[in-house]
Hints:
This protein is mainly β. It folds into two domains: about 1-210, no CATH class; about 235-275, no CATH class. The chain is about 5% helix and about 40% strand. It has one helix and 21 strands. The strands form seven sheets. The protein has a seven-stranded antiparallel sheet with strand order 4-18-17-8-11-13-14, with no helix packed on it.
Amino acid sequence: MITKLLILTFxxxxxxxxxxxxxxxxxxSSTSKSVPPAQIxxxxxxxxWYGQTGIRADNDEVFVCxxxxxxxxxxxxxxxxxxxxxxxxxDQNTGMRSLYNADDPKSGxxxxxxxxxxxxxxxxxxxxEFGELKGGSNIRLHTDHSTKRIxxxxxxxxxxxxxxxxxxxxxxxxxxxxxxxxxxxxxIVVEHRAIGGEVLRTQSxxxxxPRYEPSKPINDPIAAKPQGGVRVxxxxxxxxxxxxxxxxxxxxxxxxxxxxxxADGSTNISGRTGRSS
Length: 277
Ligand SMILES: [Ca+2]
Ligand SMILES: [Ca+2]
C-alpha cells in the first residue's frame, strides 16, 4: 500500500526537449530491429518512438522509452516500484555492481548479466516502513565506494506522461554527469519490483552514445507558444513548495500564462486569471 499519495516530484513541461537521432539502438523489447530516424520530444506523446522502446541519444541528452508493468496505475503513485539502473560509462567495474536478467540475442535463452550501476532512479520507491511504498522518486548516484541521494534536477531527469499509461519516455541531461560524456556504450535496465523487492519484470537497453557536444539550450523548459493552439504547462508540487521558489515562480511568470490553476492532493481546485498572452 502506498501510504502517502504522491504529490510531487517532477517539473513536467511539455515540448521542452527535441533531438535529432544520430544513433541506432538495440532494445530487447523492441518489436522491430530497425529504428527509423525520429525527433524525440519529451511531451508524453510516444508516437516519436514508432511503437518501440529503447534508448535514443544525441550530443546533449539521453532519452529512454520503457513499458509500464501495470498501465492502470501512474508509475509515480503505483503499488510497484519502477527501478531504472543506468550504467552510464558502460563499465561494469565502476559504480554499484548489480545483476539482471536478459535474453541472449542469439539463442533467445535467459542469461544473467552484470552491470556497474552509476545512477539508480526509483519511481514509487520504498517507504520508511517495511512493506510500504511512497510516491514520487528517489535518485542515487553511485561511485565504487559510496552512494549518495541527489535531486532529479541534478541529472536533468524527468519523465512523461504524469498519468497512467502503457509506456513512458524519460530524459537525462548529459551535461550533468561526466560519465555520460563519453562516446561509448551505455546500458539501462528498467526493473519493476513488487513491495518487498521481488522483480516482476525486466527490460534492458543498450546503445553507443554519440559524441558529447552540447549545442542545445538545455534546461530551457518552456515550449514555444503555438500559433492558434493552446500551450499547457503542468507542475506537480508537494505542499505548494515550488510556488515559493523564486526560480520556479520566474519560470511561471516568464511563460506569461493566461490562466493558472492550482490543485492540491485532495479536492480543492482554484483558478486565477493571469496576464494576457
Ligand atoms: Ca514524445
Ligand atoms: Ca559503470
